[in-house]
Amino acid sequence: MHEGLKEIAGTKFIISGRRLLDLNEPESMDLIVRKGVKQVFMIFMGEVLDKGYSEHKQEIEQKLIERGIQFIPLPKDPENIGPLEAFSRNVSKLKPNEKALVQCYHGLHKAGVTDRLAQ
Fold first, then answer.
1. How many angstroms separate the CA atoms of 17 and 115, rounded?
2. Contact 22/86 with Cβ under 8 angstroms?
3. Which residues pair with 76 in a beta bridge?
4. What are phi and psi of 112, to 5 degrees?
5. Diameter of the chain by CA atoms?
6. Better-predicted residue by pLDDT, 44 or 21
7. CA angle 72, 98, 35 (to 5 degrees)
């Protein structure tokens, strides 16, 4: 197991912080392919998703698409449950041997909680 990944027992989920698993690195992409990841849910702060990081996000998204992995941005917005409903619908489509990676784009939510959880 890569130190930047944490598989949640009894689920299809793998959690990672971006600081520990940079999807711009070819080794990271190869790793998630080997782990059977078919969906990447990336949490963004809503205002940042609107204002910036779009070029970097597009690079990551393109690399995932090239490997047959679906990229699904999840804006962090406690007032809107729509993204969570989409999350649930998409995860339910995974086959038994497929996984979903959940990652915070910034690695900063709750002081890097996905980084800490993955350790």
1. 4
2. no
3. 45
4. 75, 40
5. 37
6. 21
7. 95
**Contact call for residues 41 and 11 (beta carbons, < 8 A):** no
pLDDT digits (tens, 9 = 90+) for 43-99: 876 555 555 556 777 888 899 999 999 998 877 766 666 666 777 788 889 999 999
Q: What is the pLDDT of residue 59?
A: 85
Contact 51, 82 (CB under 8 A): no
Task: From 116, 103, 38, 39, select the one nearest 76 (Cα to Cα).
Answer: 103
Mean pLDDT in the chain? 78
Tell me the three-class secondary structure of the chain, residue by residue: CCCCCEECCCCCEEEEECCCCCCCCHHHHHHHHHCCEEEEEEEEEHHHHHHCCHHHHHHHHHHHHHCCCEEEEEEECCCCCHHHHHHHHHHCCCCCCCEEEEEECCCCCCCCHHHHHHC
